[in-house]
Amino acid sequence: MQSDTREEGAHTYLGAHALCLDNVNRLLLCRLNMGCTEAGYWTLPGGGLDWGEPPEDAVVRELREETGLRPGEISLVGPIYSEVYPNKTQDRPGDPVHHVGLIYRVRELAGMLRAETAGSTDLCAWFTSEEAEQLPLTSLGRFARGVAWPKKDDAGLIGGSESWGGQASSSPAHPSPRGE
What we know:
By secondary structure, this protein is α+β, with helices and mostly antiparallel strands. The chain has three helices and nine strands, in the order ββββαββββααβ.
């Protein structure tokens, strides 16, 4: 029998996140609001799944809440984001957490880009690779930057050397849930 070595209060956080590149290869990022861990840092639009919510529905909901945009098509991307924050720190005062993030490639966006109000993010914008390099990014944001704009030496880590014009997983693309 294996003992539970997990720290008190530690938990797993399952998130669904949208990786959106526009027609000029800019990445959509959101800035975390004051009061959030890593406030002022930029990350992918997305967030935690509600109890019983399919991840495909969660990514559509979160994208709409944080940016005002609706996807026409989403597809699951590999690899899966996984980061463990084992200890409380000044920058991360919450309980230890294991963040597992499912990343969805989003295509055919509709709607007007707008910032979330009274939520976990306060700004959203499109960034080139060079601009994103200069931003304070969360770990998820850095992961997304590597997936969106892979470097040659990273090709084996992100499912091949193909650019984001193609699909990096064997999961088929499908219309977004809820007919959105």
